[in-house]
Amino acid sequence: MNRLKKKKQNAGVEVNGNGSVTREPDCGRKQKLAEIHQALINDPVDIETLRRAAGSKGGLLTDELRRKVWPKLLNINVYDLPHKPGRDVRENHKDFNQVVLDVRRSMKRFPKGMRASERAVLQEQMIDIILEVLKHTPQLHYYQGYHDVAVTLLLVVGERMTIAMLDTLSNHHLRAEVGTIFALSWLITWYGHVLSDFKHTMRLYDFFLASHPLMPIYLAATIVLHREKEVKKTECDMAMVHHLLSRIPQDLPYELLIGQAQDLFDQYPPSLLAKRAALQPRKSLSISTFQAFQLATLHQRPDSVLKRLTKAQDSSTSRQASRYSGLEAALPQERGQLWGKGNRMVKMAVWGLSATLGAAVFAVAQTAMDWGPEALLQLF
User: Fold this and answer.
1) Could you say which DSSP state residue 352 is in?
2) Can you name the residues that pair with 22 across neighbouring β-strands?
3) Separation between Cα atoms, residue 44 and residue 210, nearest integer Å
4) 93: how many CB neighbours lie within 10 A of its CB?
5) Per residue in 75-110, pLDDT tens?
6) What is the pTM of this model?
7) Which of 48, 74, 100 is the last residue of a domain?
């Protein structure tokens, strides 16, 4: 099978045709840190360098850098964040009870050793964050596992930034309308629900935030391919294969798999998979909107400039407020309009079955031709 190009260098790893791996000397931690900091202060922000850093070996290295880079990857202005949710966010919300139940059961997602009182505060913030995003975009639908994405963001970037990031992800990356499959929890939680080590979750979030919305699918295909021998040794029975694949190993070689997922993406891009899956690209928001979303991230100003512009705008607003008494009443409405700008009608859950598993089916098919089409289809 020619699923990986021979001796293709990716993310500091060289994969040979026989599957062996050669570690290439990387540029070093200090140099990578310097490149990230320089990219952040460039005007406009050097988003391509940030994407490469997030996808390369080690990802963004520290949570401090993630707090600076993640918003840039999603084109979020750190000086124009949503306000903290008010008390009314929980009133008469159709998903309130389910959100509370899921958040209360999320104890294992918090770092070991965290004080119970601190965890309780974060859980209350999670409830409000989720309800706030759903409230401002009524077309979205809550699903169990959505809170796994929310808690990962909250532990890194804080409450207000989590609202902004979760809103953007909900409208561009997280998709709907799929049946129950073995990889369902992998995809809808970006693997956060199935990984026990938080550092691995952070590494994958670096990669996904810098990549196409379908990249979690390519990683799922790569994990299946990585476990090819296990799969082939398993009895060709839907229940047996599902049992094997639904339990993701905790000792996966993540850097290698990330490189291979990028290789799969390069060789079989979403546009190709859409054609093979008989899916019209214009009907898949993940495919049709990503190019415009990606281009929009290229024109961001560095935070130092945004801070200066925000301060100047606030000063101007303050002077005008003293002259126009009616302006104060108009501001809340204006903020609501800013929040809603760019939102699209999207259902939340995961995506259509053909789009979701297109990459996985096509990739697995390359190594499982001898199983026969009926057995291969059973695998999914």
Assistant:
1) -
2) 14
3) 17
4) 18
5) 999 999 999 998 889 988 899 999 999 999 888 888
6) 0.63
7) 74
